[in-house]
Amino acid sequence: MIDRAGLAEFLRSRREALQPEDVGLPRGPRRRTNGLRREEVATLCHMSTDYYSRLERERGPQPSSQMLASMALGLHLSLDERDHLFRLAGQNPPARGGAGAHISPGLLRILDRLNDTPAEIVTEIGETLRQTPMAVALTGDTTRYTGPARSAGYRWFTDPAARDRYAPEEHAFLTRMYVSGLREIVTLRGPDSRAAQLADLLLTQSEEFRRVWDDHEIGIRPRDVKHFIHPEVGALELTCQRLIDPDQAHSLLVYTAIPGSESHEKLNLLSVIGTQALG
Q: Collapsing DSSP states into helix, strand and coil, what is residue 111?
């Protein structure tokens, strides 16, 4: 059963504890609100201001699990706080671990400060949870996929277009890397895991995946230097730095170019044109 008073108080306290700079928003010279405004939180949570405001006023419908997960991310809640939010709303909290989509506040705070840099947060099976605008400009919006196609590895073997933005000489290595990585996660998470379901799907849908899977390769790690092919600016050589959240098995990937290099100049151009085609 929903605890409306407890839910309202908890939401209000978390909103008031957040500052604009915590979520990548400008403070502005005339701000008098203690913490964030309701409309700011509603935008962060991808819901209407009216819907969010009613919850803080102990009104409105019982939030769905999807709405609660969105609020947990928008309010930068820890895992314990997320679980508390779900229980206040009369819902069972989602499972923790590698299959979870909840991003830790620490990773979110870092990502919020990287708007001018290609960066993304991904799950252990390659599902993109968040991207900076520059990451969208570099690789496209990879948060838009649904179902198994959310996984970059699944798309690699089932959608030829998934390989378009990667240098052809990298394709064979990336094929082995995706298979090796998925095999390790299946072993770690077990036969009932989402990783195992993904492997079963690929075994039925991709002859290439079946062939490489049968090699039983383990330990093929991503390379630090990535070679992209962008449809507008061409070839880019970028270094990828990875920060891992051990609780949720999420990775924050940040892509940079050597200052003064041709790729650095192309990244600067990409920051100007964004996702728009050159005229």
A: helix
Residue 115: HSE in the Cβ half-sphere, 13 Å Cα cutoff: 7
Least Cα distance to 167 among 250, 93, 237, 244 occurs for 237
CA distance 194 to 125: 9
Domain 105-273 -> CATH class: alpha beta
Give the DSSP H/E element, type plus range, for residue 240: strand 234-245
Residue 149 one-letter amino acid: A
Count CB neighbours of 200 within 10 A: 12
Q: Report how far residue 136's alpha carbon sits from residue 211's, in angstroms, rounded to the nearest whole number.
A: 32
Query: What pLDDT shows up at residue 98?
Result: 58
Q: Where are the domains of the chain?
A: 4-88, 105-273
Q: What is the mean pLDDT of residues 26-49?
A: 83
Tokens representing 224?
Answer: 């630090």
Q: Which of 90-117 are b and which e, b meaning 16 or more Cβ less than 10 Å from the residue's Cβ? A: ebebbeeebbbebbbbebbeebbebeeb
Q: How far apart are CA 234 and CA 263, in angstroms?
A: 9
DSSP 139-198: H--TTS--GGGGBHHHHHHH-GGGGTTB-GGGHHHHHHHHHHHHHHHHHHH-TTSHHHHH
Q: Which CATH architecture has domain 4-88?
A: Orthogonal Bundle (1.10)
**CA–CA distance, 153 with 8 (Å, rounded to integer):** 41
The answer to which of 20-34, 124-138, 159-173, 212-226 has the lowest mean pLDDT is 20-34
